[in-house]
Design brief:
Blueprint: E1 2-4, E2 10-12, E3 14-21, H1 27-40, E4 44-51, E5 60-67, E6 80-83, E7 103-106, H2 112-115, E8 120-123, H3 126-130, H4 138-150, H5 154-165, H6 170-185, E9 210-214, H7 215-226, E10 230-233, H8 240-252, E11 256-259, H9 263-275, E12 280-284, H10 286-302, E13 306-312, H11 329-334, E14 343-345, H12 350-367, E15 370-376, H13 377-380, E16 383-387, E17 400-401, E18 421-422, H14 448-463, E19 472-475, E20 480-484, H15 489-500, E21 507-511, E22 513-515, H16 519-525, E23 531-536, H17 542-550, E24 556-561, H18 570-580
Parallel strand pairs: 3-6, 6-7, 7-8, 10-11, 10-12, 12-13, 13-15, 14-15, 17-18, 20-21, 20-23, 23-24
Antiparallel strand pairs: 1-2, 3-5, 4-5, 4-16, 9-16, 14-22, 19-21
Helix pairs in contact: 1-4, 1-5, 4-6, 5-6, 7-8, 7-12, 9-10, 15-18
Length: 584
């Protein structure tokens, strides 16, 4: 999308840039510096990392979108593909759509797949340029070329480079600055690539504060703000960055992180820490989550609050570790054996990873149960320049038995269903907390009446709780609705924004709280809807079937279920909505 400035030149609202290269070429570093420099210039943006199946050490791609307004997903077109080298770059071809309006910069060995896209090719060998002087790096030359070509301030590029490379010594800094300068001197090769307008007063105190943060980092911050003080986890792609961020951050607030020997140990350590009174969390992905399900059921049965962040990736089994998919929905909803009511919360964006994780901690502690935060790779590993998130606070208070008593009933029924939880050591309040069904006192029991009472208790305390307006994001009131969830919301919102100019204005419904279901609220959200389109990144249309099973919408229902690893793009959403739109 373009806009016309006061002097009549056309400047794009956003630019999409892809950098590719083999392992060690520095494309991720260059992409990260480009994003940070854009933020310093007052721009918004996102960067996603793409790698081959080996995860580390091989070819990679940094995909960026820079914009004069907040952006939360990639568009259906890349303006520039820059290759430091072409080794296995064709692996990323499907994720970098190009056309006749695109530019390609790299050496002459351009793969046929890219050369056939009709893009303008600009021959430049970054490795040959780097050979002109000792210490020059091809990625810094590429960064200088891109930054100059799109109009980023030289000062911003130099500042972020000094910040990153300064620890390597002044010689390394000067070599990097020389690389930026050399790249900038070749920016004319990309003559015709649109420049993006930036704010010349980007350091003004009157401008909104911008954060450079990933979804995984935001989830970690949300955990700490929610009160998490113990984390046990086993590393797994793409959730490990949550643990890397939390390890030093927890120490600052008096918390502890333990790397367990495996996922089973980590979730059981959570239950032990929470039993002792400390709010606890782990982070994992699909394979690890599958291993945790029995113990998550133990947390439900013993009413011990824990939080599990599942940063979903392509499946089944080990699937595609470095790519995103929303196909862990079913296991998050139904994966616990027996009747095991629990919470499932799904963030919408990088920023919402903070809020949703904080809210999940609040709900788990308040309702004494297990909460699953269902994020995914596209949210967790996307780095984004966003306005500073609002600092939301919840009155989170676990109901604790504070006084010694001779007739303590840990699992007493009645009222809200949330019964006081005694901490170890309180006189007269010892109780058994295990996976066996139990009486109100906690004594293991196989009596039918005890089982029925406890099943009702665990169900009712969740279903009767007032989750407020946080349960969903809802906009509009049209007779057609688009229903989506999680990371799919961003391309849907961008598509709806564009369609509004055509007079196509469906209502938007995106639940954040997936479990327990909210039938009355959903019925109100769907009131007057005649046609609904369900959009998700999943081959099996899991969300579509979830809606039919729990909400039974009384309208014509259509499904747009696209599997990963390719993202859902706004262009695809627009086409699908047009197919089902009826003039109101």
């Amino acid at each position: 999308m373009n806009k016309t400035s006061e002097n009549g030149t056309v400047k794009p609202v956003s630019l999409s840039i892809a950098l590719v290269g083999s392992g060690g070429s520095g494309v991720m570093t260059a992409g990260s510096l480009l994003l940070e420099a854009a933020g310093r210039a007052g721009l918004y943006g996102i960067m996603t990392r793409v790698s081959g199946p080996q995860i580390r050490g091989g070819e990679g791609a940094a995909l960026l979108r820079l914009s004069t307004r907040p952006v939360f997903c990639h568009s259906g077109h890349f303006d520039l593909l820059l290759a430091i080298d072409w080794l296995n770059a064709d692996r990323f071809a499907g994720e970098i759509p190009l056309d006749q309006n695109s530019f390609i910069a790299g050496d002459e060995k351009i793969p046929e797949f890219f050369s056939q896209r009709g893009a303008t090719f600009c021959e430049v060998s970054f490795k040959q340029l780097a050979a002109q002087a000792p210490g020059l790096r091809p990625n810094m030359i590429a960064l200088g070329l891109i930054g100059s070509a799109i109009g980023l301030p030289t000062e911003a590029l130099e500042d972020v480079s000094r910040k990153l490379i300064g620890k390597k010594g002044e010689a390394a800094v000067q070599a990097s600055l020389a690389g930026l300068s050399l790249g900038a001197s070749h920016a004319g090769l990309l003559d015709g690539l649109p420049a993006i307008a930036h704010n010349p007063n980007s350091r003004s105190a009157d401008l909104p504060e911008l954060w450079n943060i990933s979804g995984n980092e935001a989830a970690g911050l949300g955990a700490i703000r929610g009160g998490i003080r113990f984390v046990a986890a086993y590393p797994i792609t793409p959730a490990t960055e949550i643990l890397e961020w939390l390890a030093p951050s927890l120490e600052k607030v008096g918390g502890v992180l333990v790397q367990a020997e495996d996922e089973l140990a980590s979730v059981n350590q959570l239950i032990g820490a929470s039993f002792g009174g400390t709010p606890s969390l782990t982070a994992t992905s699909g394979p690890g989550f599958a291993l945790m399900t029995e113990s998550i059921g133990l947390a439900v049965a013993s009413e011990t609050p824990i939080v599990v962040v599942n940063v979903a990736r392509g499946g089944p089994s080990t699937g595609i570790p470095t790519k995103s998919e929303q196909s862990d929905l079913n296991i998050a909803l139904y994966g616990l054996h027996g009747d095991a009511p629990h919470l499932v919360v799904a963030p919408f964006s990088v920023s919402d990873c903070l809020f949703s994780t904080q809210w999940a901690v609040h709900l788990a502690e308040t309702l004494q149960t297990a909460a699953i935060v269902l994020s995914d790779q596209s949210l967790g590993q996307t780095r984004s320049i966003i306005p500073r998130p609002t600092n939301v606070s919840f009155t989170t208070q676990r109901v604790i038995q504070s006084e010694a008593t001779e007739n303590y009933q840990r699992y007493m029924t009645g009222g809200s269903g949330v019964s006081p939880m005694a901490l170890p050591g309180l006189a007269g309040c010892q109780y058994t907390a295990d996976g066996l069904e139990h009486s109100p006192r906690g004594t293991p029991s196989s009596r039918a009446e005890d089982h029925a009472q406890q099943l009702d208790k665990r169900r009712d305390k969740l279903s009767q709780h007032d989750y407020g307006e946080h349960w969903a994001h809802i906009e509009g009131d049209g007779a057609m609705a688009v229903i989506t969830w999680g990371s799919s919301l961003a391309p849907v919102e961008e598509a709806l924004h564009a369609l509004a100019a055509e007079g196509i204005t469906p209502r938007l419904i995106a639940p954040r709280l997936l479990m327990p279901v909210q039938p009355e609220r959903m019925a109100a959200a769907l009131a007057g809807v005649e046609t609904a389109l369900v959009i998700e990144q999943c081959h099996g249309a899991q969300f579509f079937h979830y809606l039919k099973a729990f909400y039974a919408p009384q309208c014509e229902l259509h499904s747009m279920a696209l599997p990963g690893p390719l993202p859902i793009r706004p262009d695809d959403v627009r086409k699908e909505i047009r197919k089902h739109w009826r003039q109101e």
